[in-house]
Amino acid sequence: MKPWFDTVAIIGVGLLGGSLGLALKQRGLAGRVHGAGHRQTSLDAALERKTIDAAFLDARASVEGANLVVLCTPAAMVTDKLDEIAPACLPEAVITDVASTKADICAHAANRWNAGRRFVGSHPMAGSEKFGPEHADPALYEGRVAVVEKGDGLDPEAQRAVCALWEAVGSRVVELEPAMHDALVARTSHLPHIAAAALAVVAGRAGSESKPLIGPGFRDTTRIAGGRPEIWRDICLTNGPAIEQALAELEPLLAELRAAVRDKDEEALMAFFEEGRRMRGELADE
User: Of the candidates 101, 285, 129, which has an alpha carbon nearest to the alpha carbon of residue 193?
Assistant: First the structure.
């Protein structure tokens, strides 16, 4: 059975928020969608794209009367927005977010609300290097994984509603505790983006002579480096310990590879690339 939300408030009307608004409206999951943002130009674009039905520069005003609130701001802004909107939310409202880090946000929510809290953290693993409401896509969440917080202290009804929300827009829900989520995505999402950015920097610093030699491999590997820098800055700031540990795990691998290249160690090189091929097949092949 599909969930139904009379009024949905989406805080942040960019790619993720706009895509969710379109998905809810096109699937008949919401009666009315409010959108809140801090730039009128973005709100006007969202209205023109019909991702929202009403626009608000005041986030608190946008959540009044909403029975679902979704925070689609950068990770570093979520806790402040939670504090801002909490007094205006209906007691029965379900509140969630889309940030790709969870431990700090969910701990903050747990401190603000007692057991039975209606905020349930989530992270739909969808996105693009493109951004802004003009790129909103109602199919953005189809076939993607959406992580939903599990753990003590959550209101069971609210947790089920958040799971149902992401399933209704086409995602496959995985329930994880926030600390486990952050440890895993540091390795599967955050470290790959850092590596892609580093590869782009290394090639770019080689000078303009490298440009004619850029091929599909470089473009595929570095595509995600085209994402918004402020989003990835905030991810590093809000998931620092897990990302630092992931980098610590990468560094000795690179050191071993460097030594194998220097020493022309055929066996070590073969073993490295064979393990990479095998691990990629186990983790990512469909």
Answer: 129
Q: SS3 of 285, please? A: coil
**CATH superfamily, region 181-284:** 6-phosphogluconate dehydrogenase C-terminal like domain (1.10.3660.10)
CA 124 – CA 68 distance, rounded (Å)? 16
Q: Could you tell me where the DSSP H helices lie in 75-170?
A: 75-85, 103-112, 156-168
List, for residues 98-110, the tens digit of each pLDDT value.
999 999 999 999 9
CATH 3.40.50.720 residue ranges of the chain are 5-176
The pTM score is 0.88
Q: How confident is the model at residue 1 (pLDDT cuts 50, 70, 90)?
A: low
What is the three-class DSSP state of 65? Answer: coil
The secondary structure of 230-255 as a DSSP string is HHHHHHHHHSHHHHHHHHHHHHHHHH
Exposure of 88 in the CB half-sphere (CA atoms within 13 A) = 16
Closest among 161, 221, 238 to 1, alpha carbons compared = 161
